[in-house]
Amino acid sequence: MNVRIINRSHHKLPAYETEQSAGMDLRANLDEPVTLAPLQRCLVPTGLFISLPNGYEAQVRPRSGLAIKKGITVLNAPGTIDADYRGEICVILVNLSQEPFVINDGERVAQMVVTRHEQVEWTEVEILDDTERGAGGFGHTGV
């Protein structure tokens, strides 16, 4: 798939790190480091602007290494970039650790997955079809 992109950062374009990777790393585009205090959140610019084809979205997701090693995650995970959005891609990060975390320019702060989606047309009904699960949820299958 070919996607149009404007790169106003001074970093390379997002790329797949391995042949079977689903996501591409997004890098912080900062003039100076940003310190994220415990439980603080911030909006991290990437300097990237994209034009996705109709029927596609880009999902911004946490990086597992930052999450497990530093307690840093994407607050609205996954963040959605719609096909008609033309603004800068930014990442909402939150520090869930007890230590300050410094975000440096060029740091890989999130990953982005581009995926196809469908839009639904609702059909209002009075009754839904029965299933074995029914209305069971939130732990209904046991331990």
- The name of the CATH architecture is Distorted Sandwich
Named CATH topology: Deoxyuridine 5'-Triphosphate Nucleotidohydrolase, Chain A
Globular, elongated, flat, extended or rod-shaped: what is the shape?
A: globular
CATH class: Mainly Beta
The CATH H-level homologous superfamily: Deoxyuridine triphosphatase (dUTPase)
Question: How is the largest sheet built, in terms of strand order?
Answer: 2-11-6-8
Architecture overview:
This protein is mainly beta and 143 residues long. It has a single domain (4-12, 24-116), classed as Deoxyuridine triphosphatase (dUTPase) (Deoxyuridine 5'-Triphosphate Nucleotidohydrolase, Chain A, Distorted Sandwich), CATH 2.70.40. It has one helix spanning 64-70, and strands at 4-7, 24-27, 34-36, 41-45, 48-51, 56-61, 72-74, 79-81, 90-95, 101-103, 108-116.
